[in-house]
Amino acid sequence: MQITHLLATALAALPLASAIPLSGAAHGPTPSLPRRTIAGVSVVDTPLIRAAQQYMRDHSNDAVYNHVMRTWLFGTLMVANNATLRALVDPEVQAVSLLLHDLGFDRTPGSKLVSEDKRFEVDGAIAARDFIRDHREGRGWEERRVQLVWDAIALHTEQKYALFKEPDVETVSRGIFMDFSGPDRGVTKEEYQKVADVFPQDTLRDSVKDVFIWLCRSKPVTTYDTFMQPFGERFVANYSAVGSRTVDFVLGPQA
Ligand SMILES: *[C@@H]1O[C@H](CO)[C@@H](O)[C@H](O)[C@H]1NC(C)=O
Ligand SMILES: *[C@@H]1O[C@H](CO)[C@@H](O)[C@H](O)[C@H]1NC(C)=O
């Protein structure tokens, strides 16, 4: 009881939740990390990030790989161009999240990363968490950072939640959407185009469409009640008659 009382007193003394920075501000941005430049964008360069990039390369086709590379660079630019976000976002958490966010798209036959019963975002989040814990550098990560990566990947398509979570989670989702919606949030047209020149966007829509069709066919239950549902319904209505490629691309509520 004494402890309960102490706890209550301590909690009462805390500032309102909204006044507590949501990000991993305790570890915070790490300006001392080495950097390299990709497509004109200065990114942090750690062994874990390099390994994440390679891991994604090993589990993706060219279209998906180019997509995750662009989203990493767009997310990085978004933070670089915004002083508030620069102070809050953990660049290594952001990089690993963006680089690994589509592990649930791994279509290698027999892939251990893809479940039969979970949304691709959850498969990706679990695979990224395993990747971090299995990696020498990642094993030293505080659990909080691993959790941020998990949340950022699991929620990236659900902006109703992602945009109101930690800045790390928010900017992962926004960086990914920017690949579909164009330059935004302080990222200039020139910066955006430079990234798209190095990692071409031309196959993005067809490749994402193919992945969605694969998901709607192989584990339809995971697509119900998500942004993929209307897509799956059109696919089902149309599949036998006209074939998969005729299904319209759908992403986001306004599509
Ligand atoms: C910077 O980011 C914060 C947090 O997302 C946002 O509220 C603010 O509008 C951004 N500033 C600019 C200039 O984009
Ligand atoms: C099938 O797809 C075609 C081409 O997108 C479209 O015009 C047609 O309305 C679709 N049919 C159904 C039943 O959804």
UniProtKB/TrEMBL annotation:
Domain HD: 64-161
Keywords carried by this UniProt record: Signal
UniProt cross-references to Gene3D superfamilies, sorted A to Z: Hypothetical protein af1432
InterPro entries per record: HD_domain (IPR006674)
Range of residues in the leader sequence: 1-19
UniProt protein name: HD domain-containing protein
Organism: Lasiosphaeris hirsuta
